[in-house]
Amino acid sequence: MIIHPTAIVDKNAIIDPSTEIGPFVIIEDDVKIGKNNKIMAHAFIGKGTTIGDNNEIHIGAVVGNSPQDKRYKGEKTRLVVGNGNIIREYVTIHRSTHEDSPTVIGNECMIMGGCHIAHDSKVGNWVIMANMAAMAGHVHVADRAFIGGGAMIHQFVQIGRVAILAGNSRFSMDIPPFVIAAEKNQVWGINIVGLRRANFPQETIHEIKKLYGLFFKDPSPRPLVLERIAQHPFQSPEVQEFLDFVKASKRGICPSANTSSEKNIDLMEKNSEVL
Hints:
- The protein is an alpha/beta fold.
- It has one domain (2-194): UDP N-Acetylglucosamine Acyltransferase, domain 1.
- Helix content is 20%, strand content 24%.
- An eleven-stranded mixed beta sheet has the order 1-4-7-10-13-16-19-22-25-27-28. A nine-stranded parallel beta sheet has the order 2-5-8-11-14-17-20-23-26, with no helix packed on it.
- The longest helix has 15 residues, at 202-216.
């Protein structure tokens, strides 16, 4: 095991010998770290943290500190980080408030410099958070979501699969799968680039486009809109995934932006191509 002599590692931490620990790293007790991780200078790994294999934790990151929650009274809570993640400089990820529901980071995520993931949040696989994005407690982010730089996400918000959130946006309502979301609780269109990158069949993309029009452009009451959608012969399971997300939403679904334009949508898609 490569441990820099200035690092402080608790004797009760369980660390695979293949993991590299850099200068001035602090690792508390009740920590488990798997194979081939690289933990860089001045990073902090708090008690109750489990880290999988092949992760990079960069300079000054704080992974598994106690939650910023007044309800927390020192209980033994947890953070679970999967495999192959990149956690960049000065990211903060807090363990949970509740003992039975750890904060979770999935696999192959990139969390860029200065991001914050609060207590009890669940982040899926292949999620990207650009610099200075932040989520409050109990946020759930599904696989392949992209969260733009400086985006602010209110507690308990749900973000669907392959959704993209614009930089400097803010959200207090749920963001369904496959959409572009921007500004304050606005949906601008379909995340075509993200769907193509995830190798969605063209037929599925076509059905998602059709669903988008039926759902967001019909001013009728929501139950009537869902009833009309049910009458269409959709074949893609992604349509049902979207509808299940909508039905399960507790904070409400971000509406389509009445003032948005095709130019805005094209700009979002163009930006996502170069990321």
